[in-house]
Amino acid sequence: MFDHVGVQVGDVEASLALYLTVFAPLGMREAVRIPLEGSAVVGLAGPDGVPAFWLSPAAGAEARELHLAFHAADRQAVDAVHEAALGAGVEVLHAPREWPEYHPGYYAVFLRDLDGHNIEAVHHGG
Predict the structure, then answer these.
(1) Phi, psi of 76 (to 5 degrees)
(2) Where are the strands (E) in the chain, listed by range?
(3) pLDDT in tens, 45-74
(4) How far apart are CA 46 and CA 106, in angstroms?
(5) CB-CB contact of 90 with 110 (8 Å)
């Protein structure tokens, strides 16, 4: 359904470092950087190399929590995201577990990013 998603953040470089550290187990990497008025707009890609997740400087204060879920290839990748988050001092909202209320095999970890957003790594499998 989505081609790409853009999120405005309070500090592009700090958010970029968090996302690259925490979601490295999913193959997330910086793919595009466009300078913008003392900051940058940064496109992040997964293993396919296509920049589908974009970070840009916020125009104002955040008013609502955003939820983003990133696909994980398997449960081990979800667990690796959790370990990377703990190592980076990221707030863990829900440690990895199966969420049968969503559907059987839904295995995910939920985290809080630097701007207060609920970010997730999820595997849809058995």
Answers:
(1) -65, -35
(2) 5-9, 29-36, 39-45, 51-57, 67-71, 91-98, 106-112, 118-124
(3) 999 999 999 999 998 887 788 999 999 999
(4) 20
(5) no
* Cβ neighbours of 80 (radius 10 Å): 20
Q: Are 10 and 39 in contact (CB under 8 A)?
A: no
Query: Which 3 state secondary structure label does DSSP give 87?
Result: helix
Query: What's the first-to-final CA gap in the chain, in angstroms?
Result: 24
Q: Counting runs of H as helices and runs of E as strands, what totals does the chain give?
A: 2, 8
Distance between CA atoms of residues 30 and 50, nearest Å:
10
CA–CA gap between residue 5 and residue 8 (Å, rounded): 10
Residue 2 in this model has a pLDDT that exceeds 90: no
Predicted local distance difference test score (pLDDT) of residue 3: 87
Is the pLDDT score of 39 beyond 80? yes
pLDDT tens track for 109-118: 999 999 999 9
| Res 64: pLDDT | 84
Q: How far apart are CA 95 and CA 82, in angstroms?
A: 7
